[in-house]
Amino acid sequence: MKFTTSDGLQLAYEDEGEGPVLLCLPGLTRNARDFDDLAATIDGVRLVRLTYRGRGESDRDANFMNYNVPQEARDAIELLDHLGIGRAIYVGTSRGGIIAMLTAAMARDRLAGVVLNDIGPQIDAGGLGRIFDYIGRQPKARSFDEAALVLRETMGAEFPGLSLADWRLQATRWLEESPEGGLRLNYDPKLRDAMRAQAEGEQPDLWPLFDALEGVPLGLLRGANSDLLSRETVAEMQRRRPDMVYREVPDRGHVPFLNEPESLAVINEVVRESL
Prior knowledge:
Layout: E1 2-4, E2 10-17, E3 21-25, H1 36-39, E4 46-50, H2 69-83, E5 88-93, H3 95-106, E6 111-117, H4 125-134, H5 144-155, H6 164-174, E7 175-177, E8 183-185, H7 191-200, H8 207-211, E9 218-223, H9 231-240, E10 245-249, H10 261-274
Parallel strand pairs: 3-4, 3-5, 5-6, 6-9, 9-10
Antiparallel strand pairs: 1-2, 2-4, 7-8
């Protein structure tokens, strides 16, 4: 399904289930497939999944600088408006969690609760550098089988225990077949240009956005092997929000898949608190 944004783009979304609404917002280069594992394991909720502009089946933006958090936060609210949903529990994976925090500052009344998946107000430099290493670079692998081997080699230490079939599944979510043969990114490579341009400016302090979540049911997940969210940042988040539901997910890096027992426990607790 698709809806039209106020600036005329067609964005893809999925809407399934009945119950409290979980607005699922994916990672930086990801799409609605980020939540396939959650959809397969959770019951009693309505999952609304947005694919941001420039990713997956959503339209690409002629102005790549519109690939930014404030614009994507507005797109998410416009999706809720399109569906006639007043409030939702934001489940934000990485970039999606930053969008959730910004929404607390700009439209708090739309938040019934928030789950932050391996993201906080402070991003470790090592993890950010890794993102800049890969974003916008077309894959060299010519098939999903080859891509699975590359992913296992580069990410296997963060996600021990995944089979080659598991890595192949991830490859099909992050890449697509190219009409010219081989594989290509399933998002606009100009996202790299947007990120580089935005990184050149003064970086905003995200702690006030986190503090804006005060009073909103809040959960946090951290992959035990994450290089983006440190335990020190988690400790400060807990100090500021001692009521925050927190779990560390073993054998996961950036990011947990959301079907782990720890992930489901946090999500279900936030859902209960939001009722």
